[in-house]
């Protein structure tokens, strides 16, 4: 008995039949582990599309998903003359070739997505960064902007800077007091945004810079509201007001201190003493706990593979999450039978059995079958075009106990038969293969760099006090909990 999810996955596999050698759909599994076409596997049914003649999973009226996706794209990218907009033709060509058309169909069915694409295709909205910012729905605009930059339809700009530039207007619109709104706008424009632009000119901004900038503006707003509750303005603030503000939620309010210093420096507030907020590091991991976590990360197969790899990179090499997500496939290499990981110069040896775990994960990375990262080189590809996963920790924390988990939940492993959300009461007897070495090549995306980010330098900042980085090869032999 095969569940519908595994059946649909199997009908999307293309490759060379291990029995007859034909290049076609191969949903069957041979005894030796190869793939079989429908005829050699004895699978009944007609799977040829009546529109294009190709074999595959048919969605409705005997038409393949890819043909239906092409029809949907022609509709939303029509320039008004019945033809696909010539300006958006590269986007049309890339999206219709995604490996999994269903995800793209789901995205295109959303009304606001259709409205945005039609507005761009028919010229009502100019195809510029400024034009996109007028379309509303910031999350969808950010996703679409990444796609357009990836396919060369928009000039590359720092996405985190763009996201913050459009954010203050909405935030300040909720501030009722005109004087407060004016002061906050000056702070956002001449301090927060100016510093972000200077940083973006030197290199790519990380998501933490965008998040921190928003927190600073939010806390600045909270401080002015606090003063308003005491019938004061920033110019009337006293030392007692400042001390009272810091008396509660001391750590949470540290983001307001840059605003306070800016106000004093620019003459918008009297010269007062800003209380010092000390942020002490958490207690370091002891060696016994660290070895226990390493052992669990390598041996516990109930933990998602991406979590295990992330935990090992942190525990063995003291890499913070923000650096881990920037690793690419090009940072993994082989030399004289040894797996190496480029964290600096020279590359660092990867001990067994972590090397097997790392290579296995790299061969089956998540988020590679959609329009965003079909040919990306990120070790941890994200859901946004040309970007790795977001390094923000999940609310539940890491399953390993070593670190917060970065990014979205990974896909199921190659050995699992059914997706958890589709498990039926009866176990599925088939195991599908998502990719085949002989599958058609994915379309290249213009502008992709071989090394999107360079992780250089030998001085690595450890995320936990007490963990030294990097750990040398000899140290790994000592710390290896699996050796005899």
Q: Major sheet: size, sense and barrel closure?
A: 3 strands, antiparallel
Average predicted confidence as pLDDT: 76
Q: What portion of residues belong to β-strands? A: 5-15%
- N-to-C CA distance: 44 Å
Silhouette? flat
Strand order of the largest sheet: 7-8-9
pLDDT < 50 stretches:
394-400, 402-484
Question: Helical element count?
Answer: 19
Helix content: 25-40%
The secondary-structure element order is: HEEEEHEEHHHHHHHHHHHHHHHEEEHH
Q: How large, in whole angstroms, is the Cα Rg?
A: 27 Å
**Structure class:** mainly alpha
**What's the number of extended β-strand segments?**
9
Region (Disordered): 367-484
Organism: Actinomadura nitritigenes
Biased composition (Basic and acidic residues): 474-484
Protein name: Core-binding (CB) domain-containing protein
């Amino acid at each position: 008995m095969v569940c519908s999810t595994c059946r649909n996955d199997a009908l999307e596999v293309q490759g060379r039949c291990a029995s007859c050698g034909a290049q076609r759909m191969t949903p069957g599994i041979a005894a030796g582990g190869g793939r079989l076409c429908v005829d050699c596997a004895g699978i009944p049914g007609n799977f040829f599309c009546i529109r294009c003649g190709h074999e595959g999973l048919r969605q409705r009226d005997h038409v393949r998903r890819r043909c239906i996706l092409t029809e949907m794209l022609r509709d939303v990218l029509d320039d008004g003359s019945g033809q696909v907009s010539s300006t958006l033709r590269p986007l049309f060509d890339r999206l219709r070739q995604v490996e999994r058309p269903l995800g793209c169909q789901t995205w295109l069915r959303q009304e606001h997505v259709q409205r945005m694409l039609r507005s761009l295709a028919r010229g009502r909205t100019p195809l510029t960064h400024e034009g996109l910012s007028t379309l509303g729905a910031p999350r969808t605009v950010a996703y679409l902007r990444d796609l357009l930059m990836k396919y060369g339809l928009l000039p590359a700009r720092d996405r985190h800077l763009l996201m913050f530039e459009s954010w203050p207007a909405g935030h300040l619109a909720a501030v009722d007091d005109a004087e407060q709104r004016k002061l906050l706008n000056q702070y956002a424009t001449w301090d927060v945004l100016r510093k972000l632009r200077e940083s973006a000119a030197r290199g790519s901004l990380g998501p933490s810079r965008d998040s921190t900038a928003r927190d600073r503006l939010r806390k600045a707003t909270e401080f002015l509201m606090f003063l308003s509750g005491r019938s004061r303005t920033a110019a009337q603030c006293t030392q007692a007001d400042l001390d009272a503000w810091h008396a509660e939620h001391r750590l949470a309010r540290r983001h307001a201190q840059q605003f306070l210093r800016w106000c004093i420096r620019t003459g918008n507030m009297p010269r007062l003493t800003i209380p010092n907020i000390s942020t002490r590091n958490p207690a370091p991991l002891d060696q016994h706990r660290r070895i226990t976590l390493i052992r669990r990360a390598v041996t516990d197969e109930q933990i998602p593979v991406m979590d295990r790899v992330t935990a090992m990179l942190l525990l063995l090499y003291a890499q913070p999450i923000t650096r881990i997500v920037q690793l690419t496939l090009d940072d993994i290499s082989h030399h004289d039978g040894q797996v190496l990981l480029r964290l600096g110069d020279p590359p660092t040896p990867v001990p067994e059995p972590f090397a097997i775990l790392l290579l296995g994960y790299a061969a089956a990375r998540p988020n590679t079958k959609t329009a965003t990262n079909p040919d990306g080189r990120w070790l941890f590809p994200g859901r946004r075009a040309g970007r790795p996963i977001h390094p923000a920790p999940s609310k539940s924390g890491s399953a390993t106990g070593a670190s917060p988990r970065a990014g979205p939940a990974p896909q199921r492993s190659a050995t699992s038969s059914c997706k958890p959300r589709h498990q039926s009461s009866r176990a599925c007897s088939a195991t599908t293969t998502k990719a085949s070495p002989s599958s058609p090549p994915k379309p290249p995306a213009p502008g992709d760099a071989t090394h999107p980010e360079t992780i250089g330098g030998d001085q690595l900042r450890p995320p936990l006090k007490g963990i030294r980085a990097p750990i040398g090869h000899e140290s790994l032999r000592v710390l290896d909990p699996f050796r005899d």
